[in-house]
Amino acid sequence: MQLRPTTAKVREALINIWRNELAGAVFLDLCTGTGAVAVAAHHAGARLVVAVDSSAKAMRNLAVCANREDFYTLRGTLPGCLGGLKTRFDLIYFDPPYASGLYLPTLAGIINHELLTSDGELAVEHHVHLALPAQYLGLTRTRQKNYGDTVLSFYQMTA
């Protein structure tokens, strides 16, 4: 699939939205691509950053920042690789290729493998014409932010 990096506008908006939550957080970036969001989360104070992508090239490009105690990469295909993550995350960012069909299977994997903490938040980037459900398995959408053709849908665990 062709790489579609998160625009600087959306990346900056996400980091600003999560500014207070990032300090000390355990952060997961799914479909990290260039790794710009993972790097920004690390710079914003995340205690641990895990960046996941299926591309060997993406993982090589992130090697400069990653493979440290507080920032590492995992090469794997979603949703199958989620079972290999043994950490629970405070914040999860998921930005797959828009036409990949990965949205619902990966959300199910996040729930099934209990990757999101009970008070954590998941942000899903998607095209404005892709409607994601307001509730899915154990997730409830709490808000949406629109940036042109791009939407960030935020989910938390259903109480």
Automatic annotation (TrEMBL):
Domain of life: Bacteria
Keywords: Methyltransferase, Transferase
Record flagged with keyword ATP-binding: no
Matching Gene3D superfamilies: Vaccinia Virus protein VP39 (3.40.50.150)
Gene Ontology MF annotations: methyltransferase activity; nucleic acid binding
Pfam families: Cons_hypoth95 (PF03602)
GO biological process: one example: rRNA methylation
SUPFAM superfamilies, A to Z: S-adenosyl-L-methionine-dependent methyltransferases
PANTHER family: METHYLTRANSFERASE (PTHR43542)
Name assigned to this protein: N6-adenine-specific methylase
Species, as recorded: Gloeomargarita lithophora Alchichica-D10
